[in-house]
Design brief:
Number of strands: 8
CATH topology: 2-enoyl-CoA Hydratase, Chain A, domain 1
InterPro entries: ClpP/crotonase-like_dom_sf (IPR029045), Malonate_gamma (IPR009648)
CATH superfamily: 2-enoyl-CoA Hydratase, Chain A, domain 1
Helix content: 40-55%
Order of helices and strands: HEEEEHEHHEHEEHHHHHH
Largest sheet: 8 strands, mixed
Organism: Rhodoferax koreensis
CATH architecture: Alpha-Beta Complex
Radius of gyration: 18 Å
Structural class: alpha/beta
Protein name: Biotin-independent malonate decarboxylase subunit gamma
Number of domains: 1
Number of helices: 11
Length: 232
């Protein structure tokens, strides 16, 4: 789904969002409440400049509009794979973006993520996944690593990984598998404005992903291991 159609389905004509290259930023109104909109489009590769621009948009909201809810719209192919960005320390820039979102959360801003197109790798981790809750459209594409790349990294034969992916969501790409693992809270079908309204009314204050993953059968051990570590 293109971002203009998404915003129209979420807010009708009550939005003031601009597209600056691959950056989306602006505001929108829902039931008389103004939301800050920050996101990406065009399968954006998150490089140094785009990471800083998103961080700036979040910080501007924290500074000028205390408590305003922030909706992160996610469409990214992950971090930009260029030598320049690596030499400049893209990991630090993306970490800075994540820290700005965490600052907003600690200052009382509800932060929601919505994957409306594509979400891959580190670009997803420091945007949608770091939100209080991340939802997705059913047609979205989500993955961290393709099976061929996973085979090269893990030294496990790709055919074996394909077999594992059939029964274990941890090995498999796809938005349904991220719901099963708890990374995505829910899929938004039908009335998107109603889904957003419900998400704003039920924004979690604690990280519930491991618990959701256990209850949905996608990550059976994460919640228990986290509990045991906390109690140790």
């Amino acid at each position: 789904m293109i971002w203009t159609e998404l915003l129209n389905r979420l807010f009708a004509d009550r939005h003031q969002v601009t597209c600056e290259g691959e950056l989306l930023r602006g505001t929108a109104q829902l039931d008389g409440e103004t939301l800050a909109i920050v996101g990406t489009t065009g399968h954006a590769a998150i490089g140094v400049e785009l990471a800083l621009a998103q961080a700036r948009a979040v910080l501007d909201t924290v500074h000028a509009h205390p408590g305003r809810a922030i909706l992160l719209l996610v469409d990214t192919q992950g971090q930009r794979l260029r030598r320049r960005d690596e030499l400049l320390g893209i990991n630090r820039y993306m970490a800075h973006m994540g820290l700005c979102i965490e600052l907003a959360r600690r200052r009382g801003h509800r932060v929601l993520g919505l994957v409306y197109d594509q979400a891959l790798s580190g670009g997803f981790i420091t945007s949608g996944l770091i939100a209080d809750a991340c939802d997705a459209l059913p047609e979205a594409e989500i993955r961290v690593m393709r099976l061929p790349a996973m085979a090269r990294v893990t030294k496990i034969d790709e055919s074996r990984l394909a077999q594992l992916a059939e029964a274990n969501p941890v090995f498999a790409p796809g938005v349904e598998n991220y719901v099963a693992m708890g990374g995505v809270r829910a899929l938004w079908r039908g009335d998107l404005a109603a889904h957003l309204r419900a998400a704003l009314a039920d924004t979690p204050t604690t990280d519930e992903r491991a618990r959701d993953g256990a209850s949905r059968g996608g990550r059976l051990l994460a919640a228990d291991v986290a509990r045991r570590v906390a109690e140790a």
